[in-house]
Amino acid sequence: DMLVVVGLEVTRVPPEMFAAHVRMARRGGAMLVVAHGECVKDCVPYGTNEAAIAAGVDILAHPSMLKPEHAEFAARQGVYIEISTRERYLESNRHVAATALAAGAKLVINGDVHLREDVKLFEERMFVASSAGLTEEQFHETERNAADIVRKALSHLPESGSCAPDDDNDIRIAQSSLACVCRGAGLPHPLRTPDYGKFLPA
Questions:
Q1: What is the C-alpha separation between 113 and 117, in angstroms, rounded?
Q2: Which ranges in the chain belong to alpha helices (H)?
Q3: Sign of the C-alpha dihedral, residues 28, 30, 31, 35?
Q4: Spatial contact of 112 and 84, defined as CB atoms under 8 Å apart
Q5: Alpha-carbon dihedral of residues 17, 21, 24, 29, nearest 10 degrees?
Q6: Most exposed among 11, 94, 124, 167, judged by the fewest C-beta atoms under 10 Å?
Q7: Based on the number of CB atoms within 10 Å of its own CB, is 79 exposed (0-12), middle (13-18) or buried (19 or more)?
C-alpha cells in the first residue's frame, strides 16, 4: 500500500511563462508542483531555474547545472533541491548536493518516476545519497524533508474531500521517494477516488 501525491512537473516551458504555468497547475488540482531544472541531459531553456524558484515550485528537479546563486535563491524561497535516483542524472548529484548544501538549501532524494520500477526503497535512496557525498545524518534530513513536502501537499486537500483534477490537466504521479517516506512517517492517505486510478501505473 502506498500514498500517492498527485502532482505535475513543469518541463521545457519558456521562463517568462513559468509563473503562469505553476498557477494553472495549482488551480488544476496539483498538490505538488515540480520544475525540471536546467541540466546537461535535457534541452531545458536557460533561465528555467531562476524562473521556477521565483514561481514558487515545491521542488527543483535534477538541476545538474545548478549555480550557487540559484541554490541561494532556493534557500530563501523554501524550494527543495532534488538529488535524483534516476541513472541519467546520477553523475551530477555530487555537484548539485555540494552547491545546495553550501547555500543552505534543503535537499530531497527523488525518483523522477516514469515506471513502477523507478520507485526506490530506503536502502537504494541511502546509497544514492552516499554516492552524492551526503553523510548519514544529511540523508536522514532529506527523508524528513520529503515527509514535510508531503504534509504540505496534503494540507491543500479541500474540505469537501475531493481533490481530483480535471481531465484536461496534464497531471501525473511524481516523486516516488515522497510516497515511500510518507508511508513510513504514518501520514494519512488522500481520498482514494476513482479519478486517481488513471494516474496510477498499470
A1: 8
A2: 18-27, 48-55, 68-77, 93-103, 122-131, 136-154, 176-184
A3: negative
A4: yes
A5: -170
A6: 167
A7: buried
Cell numbers for 49: 531555474
pLDDT in tens, 135-156: 999 999 999 999 999 888 888 6
User: Which amino acid, 149?
Assistant: I
Element housing 109 (H / E):
strand 107-110
Residue 58 phi/psi, 5-degree rounding, is -80, -40
Predicted confidence (pLDDT) per residue in 98-144, tens digit: 999 999 999 999 877 666 676 777 888 999 999 999 999 999 999 99
Give me the amino acid identity at 99: T
Q: What is the pTM of this model?
A: 0.76
Cβ distance 190 to 150 under 8 Å?
Answer: no
CA 143/CA 87 separation, integer angstroms? 20
Residue 189 pLDDT more than 50? no
- Say if residues 115 and 176 touch (Cβ distance below 8 Å): no
The cell for 101 is 548544501
Three-state secondary-structure class, residue 61: strand
DSSP 181-199: HHHHTTPPPPP--GGGGGG
Cell numbers standing for residue 83: 538529488
Nearest residue to 174 (alpha-carbon basis) of 155, 193, 146: 146
Q: What are φ and ψ of residue 53, in 5° steps?
A: -65, -45
Phi, psi of 39 (to 5 degrees): -150, 165
Cα(6)–Cα(121) distance, rounded to whole angstroms? 20
Neighbours of 12 (CB within 10 A): 10
